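Re: that chain you flagged

S.,

Sorry for the slow reply, it's been a week of failed gels. I finally had a moment to sit down with the sequence you sent. For the record, here it is as I used it:
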Amino acid sequence: MRGKLLCLLLAALLAVFSAPALAAGEDRAVVLSVPDAQGMEVGAKAAIVMEAKTGKVLFAQNIHEQLPIASTTKIMTALLALEQNDIDALFEVDDTAIHVEGTSMGLVEGDKASLRALATGMLLSSGNDAAGAAAVRISGSLPEFANTMNERARRIGMENTNFVTPSGLDAEGHLSTAYDMALLAREALSNRDFQNICSQYRLRASFGNPPYDRWLQNHNRLLSSYDGTYGVKTGFTRKAGRCLVSAARRDGVELICVTLSFPGDWAIHRNFYDKFFAELTFKNLAEDIPEVNVPVVGGTESGVMAVRFEEAEFSVPKEGADIRYEIAAPPFVYAPVLAGQYLGEARIYLEGENVFTLTLTADRDVPLLHAEKKHWWASIVDWFG
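Prediction finished late last night. Pasting the structure tokens below so you have them in one place:
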């Protein structure tokens, strides 16, 4: 009876300590305090700087205001193209889909191309023809592809976005926000093919009838003018103004920057990166988790160490970071304990927000004490027998 009560008490304690916590970056637009960051203001209609690995917001200005986004739309279209099966298979592009105004990768009637080549044409040449051809190939029509785009946006968490066209040409209701576009960039950059394409200043794509290799040049000047830039996409229409989604990395810190309707985008993106790279450092927060010894009842040892095998890599301010650790472990466990057995959680808080929850497990086996005694006695009996 006593053992049963202790088990119930242990279960209750674990239930209290292991309440579900938000995953890193799950809370919407939580701003990480960086010295003087919130005193900054730019002339864009909306601007955001986001830590790429976690989704933490470093700078926010009108980040949830719905605005036209021009050709940065092609981040979604290219991502969807690269998420299809057989992206290197050749097909004949739809004649109607490629007849579209604005920038082009150079498709003509009868051309054959692959989805990879079309994604390259979208991300480097900003080809509206490539976006249209990919849309019809994937969904059969432009309206159906818009539905596909919006469904994918919902899964990413882009709550204030509505796509109407695959290219970003001005259309009624075709809107997004700086925050949503940062989320989209973060998702797209997690796709290896997407990142490999958008990070190149020049890249070959094969298309034509018959297909042959052509060099395409990226419109993103930051790739050649700012060290560490690895994406993402430019955009411009009269209605949207200049739009830019970029990404850069330095010493482990990875940042995404979005400005909507701002003619000085190249300069402000460089300024943002200079500031936040100087203020942030990339750190494995798990290294500072306090050691935890959990008492063992009825074992050959009095306790067992609760250890973690996961990392908690995060960009934090170099100075003044408010980091707190909370250990959720039982007051004791019963033997036997097996190495790797769940013992609780270590929660890491940055400026009051739970950014990581890591599992703690036993570092070694702890057998039952009476089991060893029985084994010793059995050995004596066997010896005399």
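What I noticed first: The chain is about 30% helix and 25% strand.

Talk soon,
D.
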